[in-house]
From TrEMBL:
PANTHER family the record matches: ABC TRANSPORTER PERMEASE PROTEIN MG189-RELATED, ABC TRANSPORTER PERMEASE PROTEIN MG189-RELATED-RELATED
Topology term for the membrane: Multi-pass membrane protein
Name recorded for this polypeptide: Raffinose/stachyose/melibiose transport system permease protein
InterPro entries found in the cross-reference section: MetI-like (IPR000515), MetI-like_sf (IPR035906)
Protein source organism: Paenibacillus turicensis
Annotated ranges, domain ABC transmembrane type-1: 88-279
UniProt KW keywords: Cell membrane, Membrane, Transmembrane, Transmembrane helix, Transport
Transmembrane segments: 28-49, 92-113, 125-147, 159-180, 200-223, 258-279
Source domain of life: Bacteria
Location (main, coarse): membrane
Annotated compartments: Cell membrane
Family as reported in the entry's similarity comment: Belongs to the binding-protein-dependent transport system permease family.
Record Pfam families: BPD_transp_1
């Protein structure tokens, strides 16, 4: 009998070289990602150092140089003397209220368009999509005149109504794919058990769409928090202004307090950054789940 031929010794070497090549690819990828992450964080580091400097250090030191003295009093100055605490509170409650109304109305509209049968559903969806093409700046004068006529001059309600109207189309567009992918068997079983339309939406559909709600919430919050044009146009009372407009208090005719401006910008960035870190996983779930219609 002929003995069986031994396995060639080259095969394990091929496997090990393949594993080595795979590890090298991942190592290079991780290095690239770390470099990109560092470049993304660089503006935040620069702004943090900027907020702890005075005007002389801002212009005389390199951008990423440490200040000679960490001036934490810049934050105390803008919070107390600069009225930033009032602007911060205004930004928070206006953003929360506008985002909540946008998500609720957007969810109801998307539910009606995707899960209910009525003649005007396609027309309603088309109108919302057409609204996305309207330039924001072209509506400033008509909206200002309309709010003056109805008695809402210099009123935060102007901002809330405007934010809800302009954020509704993008909110509905993001929710559409997710709502289309929801199984109808769940709704049919709920209806068979005597569930009303209101209970169906608030107790079944809304909890099932928590990931896409997180996605739309962070997008709406970023827009509402950073919005400048409408606040600067509609609001004239200092007690009603938000952070984006309040930063102008430190820009004078002859001098500008750059350290205070940096501290104000740092305060305005932190809430959105923290919110994004907490909701980042939910955002990715909402984007991936809503991208496939099943």
């Amino acid at each position: 009998m002929r003995p069986e031929a031994a396995l060639p010794p080259a095969e394990p070497k091929l496997i090990s070289s393949s594993n080595f090549g795979s590890k090298m690819k991942y190592s290079v990828l991780y290095v690239i990602l770390i470099v990109v992450a560092g470049l993304q964080l660089l503006p935040l580091v620069w702004l943090f150092f900027f907020s702890l400097k005075n005007n002389q250090e801002v212009f005389n030191l390199p951008p990423l140089a440490l200040p000679t003295h960490f001036r934490w009093e810049n934050y105390q100055k803008v919070w107390e003397a600069g009225n930033i605490s009032v602007y911060f509170f205004n930004s928070v409650w206006i953003t929360v209220v506008a985002t909540s109304f946008t998500i609720m109305l957007g969810g109801l509209a998307t539910f009606a368009i995707t899960r209910m049968k009525w003649k005007g559903s396609s027309l309603a969806l088309g109108l919302f999509m057409v609204a996305m093409m309207i330039p924001v700046h072209s509506t400033l004068i008509p909206l200002f005149s309309m709010f003056n006529r109805i008695g809402l001059k210099d009123n935060p309600l102007e901002l809330i109504l405007t934010y809800v109207a302009f954020n509704m189309p993008i909110t509905i567009m993001i929710m559409l794919g997710f709502y289309y992918a929801l199984p109808r068997e769940v709704e049919e079983a709920a209806v068979m058990d005597g569930c009303s339309i209101n209970r169906l939406f608030f107790q079944i559909i809304l909890p099932m769409t928590s990931s896409v709600i997180a996605t739309t919430a962070i997008i709406n919050m970023i827009y509402n928090w950073n919005e400048f044009i409408f606040v600067n146009t509609f609001i004239s009372s200092d007690s009603l202004k938000t952070l984006t407009v309040g930063v102008q208090n430190f820009i004078g005719q002859y001098t500008t307090d750059w350290g205070s401006i940096g501290a104000t910008l740092m305060i305005s960035i932190l809430p959105i950054l923290i919110m994004f870190l907490f909701l980042s996983n939910r955002i990715m779930e909402g984007i991936t789940a809503g991208s496939v219609k099943g």
